[in-house]
Amino acid sequence: QLKETAYLDKLSVAGQMAAAIAHEVRNPLTTVRGLIQFLGKDTKDEKLKEFSPLLLDELDRTNKIITDYLTMVRPADSELECLNINEVLRDVKSLIAPFGSMHDVEINLEDVGHFPLMADPQQLKQCLINLIKNGIEAIEGEGIIHIYKYASDKNVFTFIIEDNGKGMTDEELEQIGLPFYTTKSKGTGLGTMITYRLIQEMGGKLKYESQPDIGTRVLITLPVAIQE
Ligand code: ADP
Ligand code: MG
């Protein structure tokens, strides 16, 4: 179960400054990246040839951290639309399936029914991709991500993203969603936090259930659009 996130309130002044800095740092980063790419291309210098891909990787990682951070601190200007959850999930599946195949993970999406939701399509998709990506990354070897409906009534719709990956201990579960908490060498530790925040802004909820070596289940609850 995710804890209430009081730290979000503290972001006001310090957070805004950090966001401004993060934003400014991105421009020189882009220049440096372009130059390294240019220098590393067709070079005869062995060292440059060997290390430029590494430099580019690290710069991309830096850029990703900044992008994730900015997504988190910026007031999300959501454009709410009436969406059909079944279609959203199908879109998301086709976006993430190649990443799944790369990791020998199959995405098994059940028909969840045609429920109308009020949400920002881009933001909702970003959230679901973050969650499914985490599931895929938690699986060593072959595995399955199972997406299915859990419950619904006239106000809310709940569905589950389940993986049979490595799962989390209670201590790990307590830390998920905290900024920069990651157990991955190339992780940013911001994905879940952003997802949590965006879902909350849509009036929804996230809940985790996990067991080490068995897998993780994420319950996503979203408000159903009121039909005239
Ligand atoms: P990142 O993916 O960059 O590490 P996240 O905020 O998305 O950052 O996730 C934080 C951490 O939570 C991950 O590093 C991982 O340890 C844990 N985690 C998230 N989702 C899962 C999952 N489905 N199964 C196991 N661990 C998970
Ligand atoms: Mg992640």
TrEMBL record:
It catalyses: ATP + protein L-histidine = ADP + protein N-phospho-L-histidine. Keywords: ATP-binding, Cell membrane, Kinase, Membrane, Nucleotide-binding, Phosphoprotein, Transferase, Transmembrane, Transmembrane helix, Two-component regulatory system. Its main location: membrane. It is found in: Cell membrane. Its EC number is 2.7.13.3. It comes from the Bacteria. GO terms for cellular component: plasma membrane. Residues 20-226 form the Histidine kinase domain. One of its GO terms (biological process) is cell wall organization. Coiled coil: none annotated. It is a multi-pass membrane protein. It is an enzyme of class 2 (transferase). This is histidine kinase. The lineage of its organism: Bacteria, Bacillati, Bacillota, Bacilli, Bacillales.
